[in-house]
Write a structure and sequence with these properties.
The strands form 2 sheets. This protein has an 8-stranded antiparallel barrel with strand order 3-4-5-6-7-8-9-10. A two-stranded antiparallel ribbon has the order 1-2. A hairpin with a 6-residue loop joins β7 and β8. It folds into 2 domains: 190 residues; 90 residues. With 357 residues, the chain is α+β, with helices and mostly antiparallel strands.
Amino acid sequence: MPIIFKNIRRKLAAQNRAAAYIRYALGEIVLVVIGILIALQVNNWNQERKDKQHLNNILQEIQGDLLSDIHHINLFLPGGKRLDSLATRIIDGKITEEEYKDPKKYYLFWVGLTYTPFYQQNNAYKKIEDFSGNIPDSYDLLLSRLNDFYVTESNTLNDVEKTFNNTIEARHQYLSRTYSWYHLLRNHKYNHAMLEWYLHSDQYKNFVSRYKADQIAKPDGLLFSYQLHAAALYIRISDFLGIKKIPPEIPALGLIHSHDSTEYSGNPNYLKKYNGTYQGPEKYQIIIKAEHGFLLIHTSNAGSISLIFRHIKEDTFKWITNNYDYSITFTYDNKHHVNGFQDHNSGGKSDFHKKIK
Protein backbone atom coordinates (compact mmCIF):
# COMPACT_ATOMS: atom_id res chain seq x y z
CA MET A 1 0.00 0.00 0.00
CA PRO A 2 2.79 2.57 0.78
CA ILE A 3 4.30 1.83 -2.68
CA ILE A 4 1.00 2.63 -4.39
CA PHE A 5 0.73 5.96 -2.52
CA LYS A 6 4.34 6.75 -3.41
CA ASN A 7 3.77 6.12 -7.16
CA ILE A 8 0.65 8.29 -7.18
CA ARG A 9 2.57 11.16 -5.53
CA ARG A 10 5.32 10.87 -8.16
CA LYS A 11 2.87 11.01 -11.06
CA LEU A 12 1.06 14.05 -9.67
CA ALA A 13 4.36 15.83 -9.01
CA ALA A 14 5.66 14.99 -12.53
CA GLN A 15 2.50 16.41 -14.06
CA ASN A 16 2.96 19.61 -12.02
CA ARG A 17 -0.53 19.28 -10.60
CA ALA A 18 0.18 20.90 -7.24
CA ALA A 19 -3.43 21.36 -6.12
CA ALA A 20 -4.32 17.77 -6.82
CA TYR A 21 -1.13 16.65 -5.07
CA ILE A 22 -1.99 18.68 -1.99
CA ARG A 23 -5.52 17.32 -1.92
CA TYR A 24 -4.20 13.82 -2.24
CA ALA A 25 -1.59 14.38 0.49
CA LEU A 26 -4.25 15.74 2.84
CA GLY A 27 -6.47 12.77 2.07
CA GLU A 28 -3.61 10.44 2.85
CA ILE A 29 -3.02 12.20 6.18
CA VAL A 30 -6.72 11.91 7.00
CA LEU A 31 -6.65 8.19 6.22
CA VAL A 32 -3.60 7.71 8.42
CA VAL A 33 -5.25 9.64 11.29
CA ILE A 34 -8.45 7.62 10.92
CA GLY A 35 -6.40 4.43 10.93
CA ILE A 36 -4.64 5.52 14.13
CA LEU A 37 -7.95 6.42 15.79
CA ILE A 38 -9.47 3.07 14.81
CA ALA A 39 -6.41 1.28 16.16
CA LEU A 40 -6.66 3.23 19.42
CA GLN A 41 -10.37 2.46 19.71
CA VAL A 42 -9.77 -1.24 19.06
CA ASN A 43 -7.01 -1.17 21.66
CA ASN A 44 -9.39 0.55 24.13
CA TRP A 45 -12.06 -2.06 23.44
CA ASN A 46 -9.55 -4.85 23.99
CA GLN A 47 -8.31 -3.24 27.21
CA GLU A 48 -11.88 -2.72 28.45
CA ARG A 49 -12.66 -6.36 27.69
CA LYS A 50 -9.53 -7.46 29.57
CA ASP A 51 -10.39 -5.19 32.53
CA LYS A 52 -13.94 -6.59 32.72
CA GLN A 53 -12.65 -10.16 32.51
CA HIS A 54 -10.11 -9.42 35.25
CA LEU A 55 -12.82 -7.86 37.44
CA ASN A 56 -15.15 -10.80 36.85
CA ASN A 57 -12.38 -13.22 37.80
CA ILE A 58 -11.81 -11.28 41.02
CA LEU A 59 -15.55 -11.34 41.75
CA GLN A 60 -15.51 -15.11 41.44
CA GLU A 61 -12.51 -15.24 43.78
CA ILE A 62 -14.53 -13.15 46.24
CA GLN A 63 -17.29 -15.73 46.00
CA GLY A 64 -14.70 -18.35 46.94
CA ASP A 65 -13.74 -16.28 50.01
CA LEU A 66 -17.41 -15.86 50.97
CA LEU A 67 -18.00 -19.60 50.70
CA SER A 68 -14.88 -20.23 52.80
CA ASP A 69 -16.23 -17.86 55.49
CA ILE A 70 -19.61 -19.63 55.43
CA HIS A 71 -17.92 -23.03 55.90
CA HIS A 72 -15.74 -21.64 58.69
CA ILE A 73 -18.70 -20.14 60.53
CA ASN A 74 -20.54 -23.48 60.25
CA LEU A 75 -17.75 -24.88 62.42
CA PHE A 76 -18.20 -22.08 64.97
CA LEU A 77 -21.98 -22.10 65.37
CA PRO A 78 -22.53 -25.53 67.03
CA GLY A 79 -19.93 -24.64 69.66
CA GLY A 80 -21.54 -21.24 70.14
CA LYS A 81 -24.93 -22.82 70.68
CA ARG A 82 -23.44 -25.27 73.19
CA LEU A 83 -21.69 -22.45 75.10
CA ASP A 84 -24.93 -20.47 75.15
CA SER A 85 -26.74 -23.43 76.71
CA LEU A 86 -23.98 -23.98 79.29
CA ALA A 87 -24.00 -20.27 80.16
CA THR A 88 -27.74 -20.44 80.83
CA ARG A 89 -27.26 -23.42 83.15
CA ILE A 90 -24.47 -21.62 85.04
CA ILE A 91 -26.53 -18.44 85.47
CA ASP A 92 -29.48 -20.52 86.71
CA GLY A 93 -27.24 -22.42 89.16
CA LYS A 94 -27.85 -25.76 87.42
CA ILE A 95 -24.21 -26.92 87.17
CA THR A 96 -23.47 -29.31 90.04
CA GLU A 97 -20.27 -29.85 92.03
CA GLU A 98 -20.06 -33.38 90.61
CA GLU A 99 -20.02 -31.99 87.08
CA TYR A 100 -17.18 -29.61 87.91
CA LYS A 101 -15.23 -32.51 89.44
CA ASP A 102 -15.71 -34.71 86.37
CA PRO A 103 -12.33 -34.73 84.50
CA LYS A 104 -14.16 -35.00 81.19
CA LYS A 105 -16.00 -31.74 81.92
CA TYR A 106 -13.10 -29.53 82.91
CA TYR A 107 -14.19 -27.22 80.08
CA LEU A 108 -16.93 -26.00 82.46
CA PHE A 109 -14.33 -23.96 84.34
CA TRP A 110 -13.58 -22.04 81.15
CA VAL A 111 -17.08 -20.86 80.26
CA GLY A 112 -16.86 -17.09 80.19
CA LEU A 113 -13.06 -17.15 80.22
CA THR A 114 -12.06 -18.26 76.75
CA TYR A 115 -12.45 -16.97 73.21
CA THR A 116 -11.74 -18.26 69.69
CA PRO A 117 -11.43 -15.49 67.06
CA PHE A 118 -12.98 -15.62 63.60
CA TYR A 119 -10.72 -14.60 60.73
CA GLN A 120 -12.45 -13.19 57.69
CA GLN A 121 -11.14 -14.13 54.24
CA ASN A 122 -10.65 -10.90 52.29
CA ASN A 123 -7.65 -11.49 50.01
CA ALA A 124 -9.76 -11.30 46.84
CA TYR A 125 -11.41 -8.04 47.96
CA LYS A 126 -7.96 -6.50 48.39
CA LYS A 127 -7.41 -7.16 44.68
CA ILE A 128 -10.42 -4.94 43.96
CA GLU A 129 -8.91 -2.23 46.16
CA ASP A 130 -5.61 -2.53 44.27
CA PHE A 131 -7.18 -2.76 40.81
CA SER A 132 -5.54 -0.22 38.49
CA GLY A 133 -7.65 -0.73 35.36
CA ASN A 134 -10.79 1.06 34.25
CA ILE A 135 -13.93 0.02 36.15
CA PRO A 136 -17.15 0.40 34.12
CA ASP A 137 -20.09 2.26 35.69
CA SER A 138 -22.15 -0.95 35.59
CA TYR A 139 -20.02 -2.29 38.46
CA ASP A 140 -20.66 0.68 40.78
CA LEU A 141 -23.65 -0.71 42.73
CA LEU A 142 -22.09 -4.12 43.28
CA LEU A 143 -18.76 -2.58 44.33
CA SER A 144 -20.65 -0.37 46.79
CA ARG A 145 -22.22 -3.48 48.33
CA LEU A 146 -18.80 -5.16 48.47
CA ASN A 147 -17.43 -2.12 50.25
CA ASP A 148 -20.30 -2.18 52.77
CA PHE A 149 -19.58 -5.83 53.51
CA TYR A 150 -15.79 -5.83 53.62
CA VAL A 151 -15.35 -2.44 55.26
CA THR A 152 -18.44 -1.50 57.30
CA GLU A 153 -19.50 -5.02 58.30
CA SER A 154 -15.93 -6.16 58.88
CA ASN A 155 -15.17 -3.16 61.07
CA THR A 156 -18.22 -3.94 63.21
CA LEU A 157 -17.14 -7.56 63.55
CA ASN A 158 -13.54 -6.62 64.35
CA ASP A 159 -14.60 -4.02 66.93
CA VAL A 160 -16.89 -6.50 68.72
CA GLU A 161 -14.21 -9.20 68.66
CA LYS A 162 -11.58 -6.80 70.00
CA THR A 163 -13.85 -5.69 72.85
CA PHE A 164 -14.76 -9.29 73.64
CA ASN A 165 -11.13 -10.41 73.64
CA ASN A 166 -10.13 -7.47 75.87
CA THR A 167 -12.92 -8.37 78.30
CA ILE A 168 -11.69 -11.98 78.53
CA GLU A 169 -8.11 -10.81 79.05
CA ALA A 170 -9.20 -8.37 81.79
CA ARG A 171 -11.01 -11.19 83.61
CA HIS A 172 -7.88 -13.33 83.61
CA GLN A 173 -5.83 -10.40 84.88
CA TYR A 174 -8.34 -9.88 87.70
CA LEU A 175 -8.50 -13.56 88.68
CA SER A 176 -4.72 -13.95 88.64
CA ARG A 177 -4.29 -10.96 90.97
CA THR A 178 -7.21 -11.77 93.27
CA TYR A 179 -7.38 -15.53 93.79
CA SER A 180 -4.57 -17.83 94.87
CA TRP A 181 -6.13 -20.78 93.05
CA TYR A 182 -5.78 -19.18 89.59
CA HIS A 183 -2.65 -21.22 88.81
CA LEU A 184 -4.74 -24.36 89.35
CA LEU A 185 -7.19 -23.25 86.68
CA ARG A 186 -4.32 -22.84 84.20
CA ASN A 187 -3.09 -26.35 85.02
CA HIS A 188 -6.45 -28.13 84.81
CA LYS A 189 -6.73 -28.61 88.57
CA TYR A 190 -9.00 -27.26 91.30
CA ASN A 191 -9.36 -26.95 95.07
CA HIS A 192 -12.30 -26.35 97.43
CA ALA A 193 -12.07 -22.53 97.30
CA MET A 194 -12.07 -22.59 93.52
CA LEU A 195 -15.13 -24.85 93.42
CA GLU A 196 -16.95 -22.59 95.88
CA TRP A 197 -16.30 -19.55 93.69
CA TYR A 198 -17.63 -21.28 90.57
CA LEU A 199 -20.65 -22.74 92.34
CA HIS A 200 -21.77 -19.80 94.46
CA SER A 201 -20.16 -16.54 93.30
CA ASP A 202 -22.51 -13.94 91.86
CA GLN A 203 -19.44 -12.37 90.32
CA TYR A 204 -18.85 -15.46 88.17
CA LYS A 205 -22.51 -15.51 87.16
CA ASN A 206 -22.14 -11.88 86.10
CA PHE A 207 -19.07 -12.83 84.05
CA VAL A 208 -21.02 -15.58 82.32
CA SER A 209 -24.10 -13.41 81.81
CA ARG A 210 -22.01 -10.82 79.97
CA TYR A 211 -20.26 -13.60 78.04
CA LYS A 212 -23.60 -15.09 76.95
CA ALA A 213 -24.77 -11.71 75.66
CA ASP A 214 -21.54 -10.83 73.85
CA GLN A 215 -20.29 -14.07 72.30
CA ILE A 216 -20.43 -13.77 68.52
CA ALA A 217 -21.24 -17.44 67.79
CA LYS A 218 -24.44 -17.59 69.86
CA PRO A 219 -27.76 -18.43 68.12
CA ASP A 220 -28.86 -15.42 66.03
CA GLY A 221 -25.56 -13.77 66.93
CA LEU A 222 -23.12 -11.67 64.95
CA LEU A 223 -21.51 -14.60 63.10
CA PHE A 224 -24.87 -15.95 62.00
CA SER A 225 -25.79 -12.48 60.73
CA TYR A 226 -22.42 -12.21 58.97
CA GLN A 227 -23.00 -15.60 57.35
CA LEU A 228 -26.39 -14.52 56.00
CA HIS A 229 -24.88 -11.32 54.59
CA ALA A 230 -22.12 -13.37 52.96
CA ALA A 231 -24.74 -15.61 51.34
CA ALA A 232 -26.73 -12.59 50.13
CA LEU A 233 -23.59 -11.05 48.63
CA TYR A 234 -22.73 -14.36 46.94
CA ILE A 235 -26.18 -14.33 45.30
CA ARG A 236 -25.77 -10.71 44.15
CA ILE A 237 -22.43 -11.51 42.51
CA SER A 238 -23.92 -14.55 40.77
CA ASP A 239 -26.84 -12.43 39.56
CA PHE A 240 -24.42 -9.79 38.22
CA LEU A 241 -22.24 -12.36 36.44
CA GLY A 242 -25.21 -14.34 35.13
CA ILE A 243 -24.20 -17.49 37.03
CA LYS A 244 -27.16 -19.78 37.64
CA LYS A 245 -25.54 -22.60 39.58
CA ILE A 246 -25.35 -21.92 43.33
CA PRO A 247 -23.61 -24.22 45.85
CA PRO A 248 -26.05 -25.96 48.23
CA GLU A 249 -24.73 -24.11 51.31
CA ILE A 250 -26.36 -20.89 50.08
CA PRO A 251 -30.02 -22.01 49.81
CA ALA A 252 -29.61 -23.92 53.08
CA LEU A 253 -28.91 -20.60 54.83
CA GLY A 254 -32.01 -19.03 53.32
CA LEU A 255 -34.17 -21.73 54.85
CA ILE A 256 -32.48 -22.02 58.22
CA HIS A 257 -34.46 -21.58 61.44
CA SER A 258 -33.53 -18.29 63.10
CA HIS A 259 -33.47 -19.92 66.55
CA ASP A 260 -31.46 -23.00 65.61
CA SER A 261 -28.52 -22.93 63.22
CA THR A 262 -28.70 -26.70 62.59
CA GLU A 263 -32.33 -27.14 61.50
CA TYR A 264 -33.99 -26.11 58.25
CA SER A 265 -37.53 -24.92 57.69
CA GLY A 266 -38.28 -26.27 54.22
CA ASN A 267 -36.93 -26.66 50.71
CA PRO A 268 -36.33 -23.96 48.07
CA ASN A 269 -39.14 -25.13 45.78
CA TYR A 270 -41.73 -24.45 48.48
CA LEU A 271 -40.99 -20.73 48.22
CA LYS A 272 -42.03 -20.50 44.57
CA LYS A 273 -45.67 -19.97 45.56
CA TYR A 274 -44.67 -16.42 46.55
CA ASN A 275 -43.41 -15.58 43.03
CA GLY A 276 -45.27 -12.75 41.35
CA THR A 277 -45.75 -9.03 40.85
CA TYR A 278 -47.11 -7.02 43.79
CA GLN A 279 -48.46 -3.48 43.96
CA GLY A 280 -48.32 -1.25 47.02
CA PRO A 281 -50.57 1.64 48.11
CA GLU A 282 -48.53 4.15 46.08
CA LYS A 283 -49.06 2.05 42.93
CA TYR A 284 -45.40 1.12 42.55
CA GLN A 285 -44.75 -2.47 41.60
CA ILE A 286 -42.17 -4.94 42.82
CA ILE A 287 -41.34 -8.40 41.54
CA ILE A 288 -40.67 -11.26 43.95
CA LYS A 289 -38.72 -14.30 42.79
CA ALA A 290 -37.87 -17.28 44.96
CA GLU A 291 -34.33 -18.33 44.12
CA HIS A 292 -31.55 -20.13 45.97
CA GLY A 293 -33.61 -20.50 49.16
CA PHE A 294 -34.24 -16.74 49.50
CA LEU A 295 -36.86 -14.28 48.27
CA LEU A 296 -35.26 -11.84 45.85
CA ILE A 297 -36.99 -8.49 45.36
CA HIS A 298 -36.67 -6.72 42.01
CA THR A 299 -38.06 -3.30 41.14
CA SER A 300 -38.40 -4.23 37.47
CA ASN A 301 -38.18 -7.32 35.27
CA ALA A 302 -34.75 -6.36 33.98
CA GLY A 303 -33.49 -4.77 37.17
CA SER A 304 -30.88 -6.13 39.54
CA ILE A 305 -31.75 -7.53 42.96
CA SER A 306 -32.89 -4.74 45.28
CA LEU A 307 -33.57 -6.63 48.53
CA ILE A 308 -33.01 -10.17 49.77
CA PHE A 309 -35.29 -11.77 52.38
CA ARG A 310 -34.84 -14.98 54.35
CA HIS A 311 -37.47 -17.26 55.85
CA ILE A 312 -38.18 -16.77 59.56
CA LYS A 313 -41.42 -18.67 60.24
CA GLU A 314 -44.47 -19.85 58.33
CA ASP A 315 -45.19 -17.09 55.76
CA THR A 316 -42.91 -14.43 57.27
CA PHE A 317 -39.59 -13.30 55.80
CA LYS A 318 -37.02 -10.81 57.06
CA TRP A 319 -34.84 -8.43 55.07
CA ILE A 320 -31.15 -9.28 55.41
CA THR A 321 -29.65 -6.00 56.59
CA ASN A 322 -28.01 -4.55 59.69
CA ASN A 323 -29.55 -1.14 59.35
CA TYR A 324 -33.29 -1.65 59.24
CA ASP A 325 -35.81 -4.00 60.84
CA TYR A 326 -38.15 -4.86 57.99
CA SER A 327 -40.17 -8.03 57.39
CA ILE A 328 -43.07 -9.17 55.23
CA THR A 329 -45.87 -11.68 55.89
CA PHE A 330 -47.80 -13.20 52.99
CA THR A 331 -51.59 -13.51 53.05
CA TYR A 332 -54.03 -15.86 51.31
CA ASP A 333 -57.47 -15.68 49.71
CA ASN A 334 -60.31 -18.08 50.57
CA LYS A 335 -58.89 -20.63 48.07
CA HIS A 336 -55.56 -20.53 49.89
CA HIS A 337 -53.76 -18.79 47.04
CA VAL A 338 -51.23 -16.10 47.90
CA ASN A 339 -52.98 -12.75 47.31
CA GLY A 340 -50.47 -10.29 48.76
CA PHE A 341 -48.22 -9.45 51.67
CA GLN A 342 -48.22 -7.15 54.67
CA ASP A 343 -44.96 -5.38 55.45
CA HIS A 344 -43.76 -4.48 58.94
CA ASN A 345 -41.01 -2.12 60.04
CA SER A 346 -39.55 -0.93 63.34
CA GLY A 347 -41.52 2.31 63.11
CA GLY A 348 -44.81 0.46 63.36
CA LYS A 349 -45.98 1.38 59.84
CA SER A 350 -47.58 -1.44 57.87
CA ASP A 351 -48.79 -1.48 54.26
CA PHE A 352 -50.55 -4.14 52.21
CA HIS A 353 -49.16 -5.06 48.78
CA LYS A 354 -51.63 -6.82 46.51
CA LYS A 355 -50.52 -9.59 44.16
CA ILE A 356 -51.54 -8.51 40.66
CA LYS A 357 -49.97 -11.30 38.60
